[in-house]
Amino acid sequence: MAAPADRSACHRLDEIVLSGVAGDDYRVTVITLADVLARAACGHLPEPGAGPTIVPQPSARHAGVIAFTAHNVIFADVGEDWIRSRLPDDDLSAPLNPPFLGDLEERTGRRVNNIDMLALAAPTEGPPPIELVEVTDAAHPRVERAHRYRDDVRVWTCPGGLVLIGRGVGGRWEVALEVEPEGRGRGLGRTLARAARHLTAHPLWAQIAPGNAASVRAFLAAGYVPIGAEALLVPSSA
Question: Which of left, alpha, beta for 91 (phi over 0: left; psi -120 to 50: alpha)?
């Protein structure tokens, strides 16, 4: 499991758990999505078989479902009773299945953007393995998209590709990259994914479309570890 650069941060997070991280204690004491994600980045995943954990939306921008192993985390301001009334007790897959996501779309007036694989990697010291140039004003569609969904975005380019990092869902640090057609098939995606780990002191989260097998392979080869799946609900106009 990826580990954060600051182990003391994990210790401080452990202190919020009064009597362990399993079952009801976990759901009661970790009350924000940021808590859940920070603990996951420290290697403390939600207890399998418990849940779902229901937390407030971290912002008006972000609502959705994260599925860890046998434990779902739902962050949507639609009422806990409403959520639980639509989830069978014996189906841990229900929060990411079409019936519940469809109800959530109707209730929130949003739409599911995609169901992505979530992967996590620790930061790495030293210079990145490729020469990058930081840009402050890029018209690339991926950059414009990042500013819609992330804060504190920074962007770097190299011949044939682009990598960016920014604070996204629950304040976590996220990475995204783009490889131009002429740069594909030569390992550039893997190199950019690895380079991102040198550009921040924070654990990095990657949202990867499972059908994009080349991207999945690139992030896995760059040391990112699959940690769950995520469905984000975005405004219908997005």
Answer: beta
Structure token pair of residue 106 = 């109707």
Any idea which architecture 120-227 has in CATH?
3-Layer(aba) Sandwich (3.40)
Over residues 156-184, the pLDDT tens digits come to 999 999 999 999 999 999 999 999 988 78
Rg (CA), the chain: 18
Of 12-16, 63-67, 136-140, minimum mean pLDDT range: 12-16
- Say if CB 67 and CB 229 are below 8 A apart: yes
Q: Which of 45, 37, 35, 34 is nearest to 1 (CA)?
A: 45
Nearest-5° angle of CA 190, CA 33, CA 224? 15
What distance in Å separates the CA atoms of residue 69 and residue 1, rounded to the nearest whole number? 14
First CA to last CA across the chain, in angstroms?
Answer: 33
Domains of the chain: which residue ranges? 7-115, 120-227
CA distance 123 to 209: 22
